[in-house]
Automatic annotation (TrEMBL):
Protein name (record): 8-amino-7-oxononanoate synthase
Entries under InterPro entries matching the protein: Aminotransferase_I/II_large, AON_synthase_class-II, AONS_Archaea/Proteobacteria, AONS_Proteobacteria, PyrdxlP-dep_Trfase, PyrdxlP-dep_Trfase_major, PyrdxlP-dep_Trfase_small
Binding site for pyridoxal 5'-phosphate: G109, Y110, S180, H208, T237
Keywords, sorted A to Z: Biotin biosynthesis, Pyridoxal phosphate, Transferase
Broadest EC class assigned to this enzyme: transferase
PANTHER family to which the protein is assigned, alphabetical: 8-AMINO-7-OXONONANOATE SYNTHASE, CLASS II AMINOTRANSFERASE/8-AMINO-7-OXONONANOATE SYNTHASE
Required cofactor names: pyridoxal 5'-phosphate
Organism field: Leucothrix pacifica
The Aminotransferase class I/classII large domain, residue ranges: 41-382
Listed EC numbers: 2.3.1.47
Subunit structure: Homodimer.
Coiled coil: none
Similarity comment text for this entry: Belongs to the class-II pyridoxal-phosphate-dependent aminotransferase family. BioF subfamily.
Length: 391
């Protein structure tokens, strides 16, 4: 009997009718502000390359040299014979950079989150997640044996109430550091206090803070002055602020050894290419050497926020490089995005299920590779739009 794909066709049609259909754009350029996308020269404000390192010549050189030395693929999982000296160097550098005993590499942030939560939670335990956590954290919670509870976004009272109602013997609190679609930061100090009070683990996914926040760029945990005792499980990606690819979990020696033995997304997959790890090491060097990148990015954020305020744009509260404009309906978000594109600027429309229904937005992201003139051009284009937040 032939498989009927009618339900698939119906779903695709419904996605189009609801203004939720997505298609990848074809990129012909390195990651940088001025790009060629779908054959058109475009000024982009949608990349997570916050420090502008993705196309840095020293990263390219480090990658090329490592590829010449070790080839392209790692060939095997870390626990077989795929753990290259470049992986080891990067893990040691990440541990030192974040002030922790050990670090463990994963191929993606998604895999790091699935691996950590799957290994560190068990049946009969509770997992508490902020409602706006990244999809990978939510998926990890659903796939785990723990009972998952979602508390209202950054609502510490709601979290306390949920923990108080639980009869489970052990628990873990999980949060994004910087929330990827809103740009606001978790209240890590209060979360650390609650975790200590209830003898819970606190796990922070600092994908959008790593490299950008903190005195040295080590992230939100550093910015808030918290230690590994406060945040035992720190996760971050290397494909955003670091400009490369992959992710890591950092913590004490026993935690990392436990994950090596237990995290399925570490054990049962091929290690990242050694050349990516070599580029990651060079990225950490540049983060600490080229501090002007974080300073310049902060200046651009201030410039944009002041300009957006003068224009009366419906901005969401954020002090990070993620600056969302709340517009409401998905059709409106697409319309505004298209109007910007007609002016030569790419800002993507973020729609459900990435964000809640009725909260579609334009997600503007700034990079140290942008100039003040780029931001002025963006503000000028936004000033020509007639924003409405009706759903």
């Amino acid at each position: 009997m032939k498989k009927d794909f009618k339900h698939i066709r119906n779903f695709l049609a419904q996605q189009q009718q609801r203004y939720l259909y997505r298609s990848p754009r074809l990129n012909h350029s390195p990651q940088q502000p001025d790009m060629v996308i779908d054959g058109e020269k475009i000024l982009t404000f949608c990349s997570n390359d916050y420090l502008g390192l993705a196309n840095h010549p020293e990263l390219i050189q480090a990658f090329q040299q490592a590829a010449a030395n070790y080839g392209v693929g790692s060939g095997a999982a870390h626990l077989i014979n795929g753990h290259n000296i470049e992986h080891q160097r990067l893990e040691e550098a990440l541990a030192a950079f974040t002030g922790r005993e050990r670090a463990l590499l994963f191929s993606t942030g998604y895999m790091a989150n699935l691996g950590a939560i799957g290994a560190l939670t068990s049946k009969g335990e509770s997992l508490y997640q902020d409602r706006l956590n990244h999809a990978s954290l939510m998926d990890a919670g659903r796939l785990s044996d723990a009972k998952m509870w979602r508390y209202q976004h950054s609502d510490m009272n709601n979290l306390q109430q949920r923990i108080a109602r639980s009869t489970d013997t052990a628990s873990m609190i999980v949060t994004d550091g910087v929330f990827s679609m809103d740009g606001d930061c978790a209240n890590l100090k209060e979360l650390a206090n609650i975790a200590t009070e209830h003898q819970s683990w606190l796990m922070v996914d600092d994908a959008h803070g790593f490299g950008v926040l903190g005195e040295t760029g080590a992230g939100l945990v550093e910015q808030e002055g918290l230690s590994s005792d406060d945040v035992p499980v720190l996760i971050a990606t290397l494909g955003k602020g670091a400009g490369t690819a992959g992710a890591f979990i950092a913590g004490d020696h026993d935690l990392i050894e436990f994950l090596i033995q237990s995290a399925r997304t570490y054990i049962f997959t091929t290690a990242m290419p050694p050349a990516i790890a070599a580029a990651g090491c060079k990225s950490l060097e540049l983060m600490q050497k080229e501090t002007w990148r974080r300073n310049h990015l902060q200046q651009l954020i201030t410039q944009f926020k002041q300009g957006a305020d003068q224009l009366g744009l419906p901005m969401m509260p954020s002090d990070t490089a993620i600056q969302p404009i709340l517009v409401g309906g998905s059709d409106k978000a697409l319309c505004y995005s298209q109007q910007l594109l007609s002016q030569g600027i790419l800002v993507t429309a973020i729609r459900p299920p990435t964000v809640p229904a009725g909260e579609a937005r334009l997600r503007i992201t700034l990079s140290a590779a942008h100039t003040t003139q780029h931001v002025e051009q963006l503000l000028s284009a936004l000033g020509k739009l007639n924003f409405s937040t009706e759903k």
